[in-house]
Design brief:
It is a single chain. The protein starts with 7 loop residues before the first strand and ends with a helix. By secondary structure, the chain is an alpha/beta fold. Strands 2-3-1-4-5-6 form a 6-stranded mixed beta sheet, sandwiched between helices. It has 17 helices and 9 strands. The structure holds guanosine-5'-triphosphate and magnesium ion. The site of guanosine-5'-triphosphate has 23 residues, from helix 1.
Length: 470
Amino acid sequence: MSDSATPRFAVVGHPNQGKSSLVSTLVQDDHIAVSPISGTTQSAHRYQLLLADQVLYELVDTPGFQRARQILDWCNERAADAAERPAVLASFVAQHRDDRRFSDDCALLEPILNGAGIVYVVDVSQPFGSVFDAELQLLSWTAQPRLALLNPIGNDRHAAQWQTALSQYFSLVRRFDPLVAPFEQHLALLRSLAEVHPPWREALIKGVDALSEQRQQRHDQAAQALLLYFERMLHLQLQLPMVGPRDQVRAAGLAQYNQALQQLEKGLRTRLAEIYGHGDLDWRTEWQALAQDDLTDAREWRVWGLSRARLASLSGAAGALSGLAVDAAAGGTSLLLGAVSGGVLGGLAGGFAGRNGVTFQWVSRVPGYEHWQLGPMTSLDFALAMIGRALRCWYQLRQRNHARRDVLDMGGADFNTWLSGLERKQQVQWLYWVRRLMKRSLTEAEVAQFTALIAAIGYQMDILFTKINK
Ligand SMILES: Nc1nc2c(ncn2[C@@H]2O[C@H](COP(=O)(O)OP(=O)(O)OP(=O)(O)O)[C@@H](O)[C@H]2O)c(=O)[nH]1
Ligand SMILES: [Mg+2]
């Protein structure tokens, strides 16, 4: 339910300026039609951001202005002075709402005349022009609270010119890229909206708090989902009947194992998409899927995980931690800071030698019950590669604004980079927990510690993403 106390803004402007994109991002709905074709939105549609059954705010997506100049002329002929303008504009809409020539303009103006605030969106890669003057004048005639948004579609070449023009009609002009604006900027924009109309202020500020809380919950749920996935994936085992020559059994087994891994990965992706409210994603799975060869050829899969140098530097310390049964949470010892003896490192480096990510063994000699067992995962760097893939999925979903319609791309950002942002102690702990989890399930207290480390990586993802998209 909503009422006049619910902040409501009509998102308006010329066609193809990113209006629907803005609505998508701010109401977190990726089903809203967004496309490079001008005139995609053909009627006004109200969207609500609902959290815990409460409407935080409403945005009305509208078609773009078509005949602002003609409407302005019509109104100018009939309004004697400024006091009459809102009423004259309302009578224009009343008289023309069924006139096909003005249907888009009426659909756009109507919610504003019914009390919605205005968010005027412009693409600042395009120059300002007189056609926009008429739009701005009409909007000012509604006398409704308003804010203008500079949307850099591709570039912001004409931003200064727009700023000058818009400042004459709007007391607040902000820059916002609905596709890649980091979450903090969403909140900043809502805080700006809170300034344009005092009666809505409190509700919008509450909305900011509720959204921040929701985001934190999503991250927490995602960290839990990741850890659950790590456990299932690292412990994955398949039993194969012993029929046929070893090589054939092995090849068939690897194919099955790969399928099972992919299923687990898919389950994780679905869960993360659900957590972050994405319903309509294209993962372009074909090239990104794990190939069967990846299971046996280290060169292929290592790119997903940690670099050799980093692994060598951390695994020694992590191994020593395990060996000495040091509580990883205590940390801060010289071991964690890098003083690892050659002996320890040498022992662990053996993990590199094996090219297989998983074990493959004959587990029963009882006649009639022989079978091969494939898994669990034995190679630390294969485990880290799989974890790296999962973290890339998380990064994609965590940072993805709902306005985006492009395919998800697992390239680019990686585990190595995020890990670099953590203190060395935490980096070692990361490896320590992965190694532990490879051996056995974690206790509740251990789960809490590992989850906190996963959260720390998520925080690094945010820092890097914000740096790129300032
Ligand atoms: N690169 C980039 N593309 C954007 C941005 N905002 C919108 N776009 C793209 O611009 C195109 C138009 O976006 P829409 O949100 O559909 O624009 P609209 O104003 O609703 O358009 P109509 O409904 O046709 O009036 C889409 O292809 C968007 O993906 C942006 O900030 N950066
Ligand atoms: Mg649209």
